[in-house]
Amino acid sequence: MTESSQNTAAQKLPLQGAGGLICILGAGESGVGAAYLAKQQGYDVFVSDFGQIADKYKQQLQEWSIRFEEGGHTESEILGAVEVIKSPGIPEKAPIVKKLRAQGTPIIGEIEFAGRYTDAKMVCITGSNGKTTTTSLTYHILKEAGLNVGLAGNIGKSFAYQVATEKFDVYVLEVSSFMLDDMYQFKADIAVLLNITPDHLDRYDYKMENYVASKFRIAQNQTAADYFIYCADDPETVKGMEQREFKSQLIPFTIEKQVERGAYMDDNNNIIINTNGEEFSMSISELALQGRHNVYNSMASGITARVLEIRDKSIRESMGSFKNIEHRLEFVAKISGISFINDSKATNVNSTWYALESMTPDVVLILGGVDKGNDYDMLRDLVKQKVKAIVCLGKDNKRIHDAFENDVEVMVNTTSAAEAVQIAYHLAKKGDTVLLSPACASFDLFTNYEDRGRQFKAAVLEL
After folding, report:
1. 129 is in an annotated binding site
2. 73 within domain boundaries
3. Residue 431 marked as a ligand binder
4. CATH, residue 45
């Protein structure tokens, strides 16, 4: 089966901008942006959020004279829509979604909707880990090269709002599996799949093959003129590709072997990228982003830049000057010779593995939060090699204790960022690293991972 034939049958397109009611479920960044674009295109727009709408989004909807409700759904209104744009956070099992499906109302995502109203080139990046970093790095390279480029998707301002208000030639979109599930006719000119490791399986009936299928939707609708950039070292990606057909040009990146076309690492630790017969070379020591996982991220961004015919000098300068995003292996400060790193965005075990893999001993690791059924086994070897103490930050730390009590000498429970930082500081000595990389969601003690990261940084700066 080709990717473009998957999951498209039930989606009929409404008339472009021909009026009729479009309903938007969820009034976050993507929903409010989609509402603005839909209104601009001549639709009657109604926004419905089962929870409470943040004040800034409520104010925007009022300014734009867009009808909205919060704290529940008026089903009679929603079920009368010609099309529904759903927030990626709303699962298929939500009662209103089930009712819409039962009556055949098309349900799409913001990316699908906004993609109808722009002819910009689309660079779409997905993966279980590293997609925010790779998206940000790719955007940085293209912007520094002088391209008229927008940044959207799971990062920055809503794609739909930018389509309504800007005229970019290229968009770099970070695309999650939830977003991909609601994309049907949208096409990526350049699709990047970084890796596939277990995550969000509760949304996929706890079946890995369902999650894998979702990730591969990044390549649906691609043609021979398009590119699919993928990690040839990732087992789930390789296995998934063997089961699928692709019309696009396949370009791998790898650090385990040499490839004729794509990116690889030579014996002298240089990244070699070859997309059109001309080689680009750069030492990994020159990369702004260090660690094995970031070599992969840099390769994916570098291939994308070469495909878009960015000059080698510009790529090299940008990959050397990039500053990482907030809450992703973000250096906070060095105090008494101890380095403090904020990796609050690591909300799953794989992300924490990548963080630890890029560290040198000795690490005081701050771990914990809302456990999503984590399997900590994959961290055990790295914890034994690099971690001298674990500071648990969460309401229930039993599973972390069970996983690591035989691997580290010291484990301490804390219930606030300030307490965790104080204890980690006293456990560390000059030359050590205190790493916040929780492997868990943040909702037990914090509003979100950003809140957790900011409280951590504030506590470090108060030492």
Report:
1. yes
2. yes
3. no
4. 3.40.50.720
